[in-house]
Amino acid sequence: VDGSDPVIEGIARGLTELPAPDRLVVREEDSPVFEVRTYYNPERRSAVQIVPGLIGVILNLTMVLFTAIAIVRERERGNLELLITTPVATPELMLAKIAPYVLIGLIQVTIILAAGVWLFDVPVRGSLIDLYLASLLFIAAALSLGLLISTLAQTQFQAMQLTVFTFLPSILLSGFMFPFAGMPRVAQWIAEILPLTHFVRLVRGILLRGAGLPELMTPVYALAGFFAVTVTLAILRFRKRLD
Prior knowledge:
- By secondary structure, this protein is mostly helical.
- The protein folds into two domains: 1-44, no CATH class; 45-242, no CATH class.
- The chain is built from nine helices and no strands.
- The chain has helices at 6-16, 46-77, 79-84, 90-120, 128-152, 156-173, 185-193, 195-207, 217-242.
- Helix 4 (90-120) crosses helix 5, helix 5 (128-152) runs parallel beside helix 9 (217-242) and helix 8 (195-207) runs antiparallel to helix 9 (217-242).
- The longest helix is centred in the N-terminal third of the chain and has 32 residues, at 46-77.
- It is elongated, with a radius of gyration of 22 Å.
- The model has no long low-confidence stretch (mean pLDDT 83).
C-alpha cells in the first residue's frame, strides 16, 4: 500500500482490523492470509505526511503575498509610474519585480527541507535537483498569481484580503490537510485549478516515493499551464490599467 497516501493506507489497514464474528466468516484451511505492507511511510508518522506539503503551503502564502503587496505599494508611492516612463517593456518590468522573490522562495525550500530532515527524520528518496526544479515551477506559478492580484487590488489591504481568499481554499482542498480522494466531486474540480494541489503531489512523489519528474509530468503540465494563464492575464490587466 502506498503510505504516502493516508487515505488508501488507512482503508487497507482498517480492513485488516475490521472485527468479524466467527459465525459470519466461512473459514477454509487453505484460505490466503490478508496482509498489508505499507510502503514509503511504514511507521505512519504524521511528520512524513505534513513536512512535504508544508513546503508548498509556506511558499504559496509568502510568494503570493510578497509579490502582490510589493507591486501595490510601489503603485501607491508613485514609483511604478516612474518606472513605466522608462523604455522598459511590461513583461520585463514585472519580471524585474518578482525576480528577487524566486531566490527567497528557494531559500525557504532549503530551510524547511533541512528542518524536516534533521528534526523529524523526513526521508528524501528522490533527486534534490527534481525537487528544486518542481519548487521553481511552483514559485513561478505563485508569483504570477501575486502579480494578477496586484492588478486587481487598489490598496495593500485589498491585496492581503485577496491573498487570503486564495490561500484558504488552497490549504483545505489541495490534499495537505484533508485527503483529496475523500472530497466531493465539485471540491476536487476546484482543487485541480489550484497550483498547491499539484505541487503537493510533486513534492510527496519526489521526497517520499523517490519518483522523478518524468514520472510526474501531469502536475508539471498543470503548474506550467497555470503559470502561463495567470501571467498572461496579469500582463494584459497591467497594460489595460496603464492605458
